[in-house]
Design goal:
InterPro entries: Transposase_Tc1-like. The protein contains six helices and no strands. With about 120 residues, it is mainly alpha-helical. Helix 1 packs across helix 2 and helix 3 crosses helix 4 (about 65-70).
């Protein structure tokens, strides 16, 4: 596609990848005449299963702890990717409780009742 004159953006949209990934692949092709991934990148299936198993055993583990437990030099992004593929995305805790319409109405009533108060009333 690139040799046919397509832009990086057009190629990225066509193959459903990021522009950066397409650009990197194209640069590697023009530099090395190959598209093969470098050796040592990524994780094996066995390591992938160990990552998922660790997350299932203890859902409070963080990426660096999982990395240390599996004993392989996997980058944190690889660990996150494997967990997403296993449908184990992290969930951020809710910081505050959401207000229901009833709560909002009651809070507004409380504020209206005290809107004219002065410093001594408070």
């Amino acid at each position: 596609m690139k040799t046919a004159g397509w832009s990086t953006l057009r190629v990225a949209r066509q193959v459903d990848r990021s522009e950066c990934a397409v650009r990197t692949c194209w640069e590697q092709w023009t530099r090395d005449d190959t598209h093969v991934r470098r050796t040592g990148s990524g994780t094996t299936r066995r390591e992938d299963r160990r990552i998922v198993r660790q997350a299932l055993v203890d859902s409070t583990l963080i990426r660096s702890t999982i990395q240390a437990d599996i004993g392989v030099p996997a980058v944190p992004q690889s660990i996150s990717r494997r967990l997403v593929e296993a449908n184990l995305q992290s969930k951020r805790p809710v910081r505050v409780l959401l207000l229901t319409p009833k709560h909002r109405r009651l809070r507004l009533q409380w504020c209206h009742a005290r809107a004219t108060w002065n410093a001594t009333d408070w």
